[in-house]
Amino acid sequence: MDFTVTKPKAPVRTAIFPVAGLGTRFLPATKATPKELLPVLDRPLIQFAIDEARDAGIERMIFVSHPSKSAIERYVLEDKDLTETLCAKGKHGLARRLTDAALNPDSHEVQFVMQHQPLGLGHAVLCAAEHALPGPVAVILPDDLILGEPGCLSEMIAAYTQGGAGHMVATMQVAPEAVKNYGVLSVTGRDGNVLWADGMVEKPEPADAPSRQAVVGRYVLDGSIFDDLRGLPAGTGGEIQLTDAISKGTPRVGLSGFRFSGTRFDCGSKEGMLRAILAYAGQRTEFNDVLASRETGLLAAE
User: Fold this and answer.
1) Does residue 2 form part of some domain?
2) What's the CA gap between 151 and 261, in Å, rounded?
């Protein structure tokens, strides 16, 4: 069913950041540093996600973390002592950069909740239920870095609030052999960058995939997602799967995909992180010589 003729939706005011994972693919680095704080050059992954949410007009940001990852909270919030120390040393520009990067409680509401056990993405989202503002909510996975202007979430919210399906997921077209690594949208129609769908298939074999539209780490979800998550039985891997709750609500609120304009990097993998670093460096002129040296095979320590 296509949900193309409906009234505009309520604004998306809440973003949920599931950041409780242990980042095992980056051990030993993540033994002491949360994967969300790993830098893409000089900018931690979580900073990209925060800035994307701010640019999209999000009012309340909920970080679903783990007690062992207190460094995330220290990073996200302003450190006034550090700022004052930098200013006292005359480093006013650096102090200003840190202040601009941090979330200021005067302009954004910030909540931290704990996910004590790794019970899945769906469980992480449910942990945020009591703190979400009324209406639809966004979910951002920080290790899915999407570079581009405007940001992916801004694009999605602009399309979502015009009406249509109650659940929207970010999608990108992947190679046939890659569909087995993703949830894949079952597409029924298209309107520009919006793909209407009747469901998702989790990690299908290429011959069984309903499309090549892979779901990546941005969601805008109807507020009923929390009710659909409550009492949901464990799915793949013994975890509460967000995709199962989305599928449960699809017959009632509808489902669509959004083909964003930016470039996505899977920074949960080492290869994806390296690609992201090189792409981000390519956007900054101070690294032109380094990248040129790499291209000509002359990169060496100086």
Assistant:
1) no
2) 8
250 found inside a domain? yes
Q: Distances in Å between the alpha carbon of 191 and those of 97, 141, 183, 250?
A: 40, 26, 21, 18
CB 246 within 8 A of CB 263: no
**Pick the residue with more confidence: 289 or 124?**
124
Q: CATH number of the domain that 241 lies in? A: 3.90.550.10
- Mean pLDDT in residue range 220-242: 89
pLDDT for residue 301:
45
Domain-embedded: residue 203: yes
Mean pLDDT, rounded, for 37-49 = 95
Q: Are 124 and 63 in contact (CB under 8 A)?
A: no
Of 155, 189, 167, 179, the C-alpha closest to 250 is 167
The predicted-structure confidence for 111-153, as pLDDT tens digits, reads as follows 999 999 989 999 999 999 999 999 999 999 999 999 999 999 9
Q: 133 is written with which tokens?
A: 């503002």
Tell me the residue range of the domain where 114 lies: 14-294
Query: Is the per-residue pLDDT at 105 higher than 90?
Result: no
The answer to whether residue 32 sits within a structural domain is yes
**Number of independent structural domains in the chain:** 1
From CA 144, how far away is CA 126, in angstroms rounded?
20
Rounded to whole angstroms, the Cα distance separating 207 from 188 reads 18
Task: Supply 154's token pair.
Answer: 């801004």
What is the structure's pLDDT at 188?
Answer: 94
CB 232 within 8 A of CB 245: yes
Residue 118, classed as helix, strand or coil, is coil
